[in-house]
Write a structure and sequence with these properties.
about 290 residues, alpha/beta, 6-stranded parallel beta sheet, 12 helices, 6 strands, about 50% helix, about 15% strand, binds iron/sulfur cluster
């Protein structure tokens, strides 16, 4: 199985996002599909559009589906998108042209939080998008962030994780801890509140020599400490992936040896061998020594 990845830029202004390209470059759908065709000829059978914003609107997705269908291409494809860039027609067409999975930046579980992070989406849009995809057999990955400024206690984060797990119910969930990157609005907010230093120099030094420069990435630790966030992240993964409904759904979706291996790796990490969180924890502990 060979995969091909592409990315382009996003005009939205989410406060935490460090995507540097703010202009969304839209290539002619026919040219996009020329490339898909080229990849198929080279032996790729899955395409993942790692574009920062693939579905700027449903029309664009439909025009790419049209071009794939018109040429009779057999390809499985996924994209990363926004919940306000889909409608029922685009989901139906996506499925028909080989679409398999959409990854949505859901981020958090309250309208207050979405507004604070200028996500330009609502709780209703998030839940509706996930339901629409399930209705038409599209697999969803929901990206969630914990440790956001509007989560004012440990219990607030737990409440959010429960809501995201049981009410939103995507096929896959990714729980990340908010990281404060320079040139993001949330970084400046943290500086203004005195939570972090405006030390952008450390980033320049690190960029000059990433392999040999230690780097401490800051978090919004006004209410919940970084150690607590690591624990909450592990808890979130367990809560989500150890539900019988999630396990059953995962088993039903297995189609290849590659997927079996990936799922076993995922299961191991959820029951305790959590490589990502351990790595983060080890880094964090090294940083605070
Ligand atoms: S988080 Fe997504 S929607 Fe928001 S600015 Fe970044 S790429 Fe765009």
């Amino acid at each position: 199985m060979k995969r091909y990845t592409v990315r382009y830029g996003c005009p939205y202004k989410c406060t935490f996002c460090d995507i540097p390209i703010k202009t969304h470059r839209r290539r002619d759908p026919e040219k996009v599909v020329d490339e898909i065709e080229d990849c198929i000829k080279k032996g790729y059978d899955e395409i993942h559009f790692y574009d920062d914003l693939f579905n700027i609107n449903p029309k664009r997705v439909i025009s790419i589906c049209d071009a794939i269908d018109k040429r009779g291409l057999k390809v499985t494809w996924d994209y990363r998108g926004r919940v306000n860039g889909i409608n029922e027609e685009s989901i139906i067409r996506f499925k028909k042209s080989g679409g398999r999975m959409i990854s949505f930046g859901i981020e958090t579980s309250t309208d207050e939080g979405l507004k604070m992070m200028r996500k330009a989406s609502t709780v209703k849009q998030n839940i509706d998008a996930l339901k629409l995809c399930r209705k038409h057999g599209i697999v969803t990955i929901a990206d969630f962030i914990i440790g956001l400024p509007h989560e004012r206690s440990y219990n607030d984060v737990i409440k959010s994780i429960k809501k995201l797990t049981y009410e939103y119910d995507p096929d896959y969930a990714q729980f990340s801890i908010l990281r404060l990157y320079p040139n993001t609005e949330v970084f400046d907010q943290a500086v203004a509140k005195g939570l972090i230093d405006k030390d952008k120099d450390k980033w320049s030094k690190w960029a000059m020599n990433p392999l040999e420069t230690p780097l401490i990435v800051d978090h919004w630790d006004e209410y919940v400490t970084a150690e607590q966030l690591v624990k909450l992240q592990k808890k979130a993964y367990r809560m989500f992936y150890l539900r019988p409904s999630t396990i059953w759904r995962q088993l039903k979706q297995i189609r290849s040896l590659h997927e079996i291996k990936a799922k076993i790796r995922g299961a191991l990490s959820v029951i305790g061998i959590d490589f990502g969180a351990l790595k983060f924890k080890a880094n964090f502990e090294n940083q605070i020594k």
